[in-house]
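Example 3.2
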Amino acid sequence: MSTFEDQPTSVGVATKTTRRRGETLTRAIHEATLAELQDNGYAGVTFGGVAQRAQTSRSVLHRRYPSRVHLVVDALLSIAPTPPPIVTSGSLREDLYRIAENAAIPQRHFGPEISRRIIGVTTEDLDADLVSASYASIRTALPHVMSSARARGELGPAEIPSAALNAPLIMVRSEGILREVSTGFLEQVVDEIAMPLCRATSNRPPETACARAAQPGAAQTQDSGGEPSLDPLSSK
């Protein structure tokens, strides 16, 4: 970011724009936005301030981003850490804890203040982008985690509803909006929410599962692992 922090930040000071394109321009905009965010907070990020730091024009930014939140989210996603792949460990609790850790990565990276600001003004398309970036590894891992646990006898034969799979992840996301996500909180979610939900719902009596399946609108999209696919974790 030091390359762009030397640029004037006062909106009233004229600066010469530099014609850049493609990845070079995108990188300059990202770094300028992140610098403005660090120096001034979300409320202090303006198109004028970013344009001056990035040595470009406001019109260029407005063509790319319809709003400030689009500008900020794009910059944050450019530095968001990629959650590591989740490999089944032979223990359902350990696997669920790793999933909870992955779910906490965006909130731990951005911090509560930025998370609150974004959640308060984000749009449906931006929220989908954030969820996709944050939960891709979880969506991939969950079917394998559940089928492996079932094969080891840690879970019953009944399908686990998507609501039961989503609930712990939503709790982690909500915690990250309020405060830093601690290891103790993740352990509590796994031990008191995720594990009991998975065990209880997978051991439902067969007639209960059949009755639920017969209800209108109860059908759920299945993936290759046999568990319901995760729905987007919308903030709205």
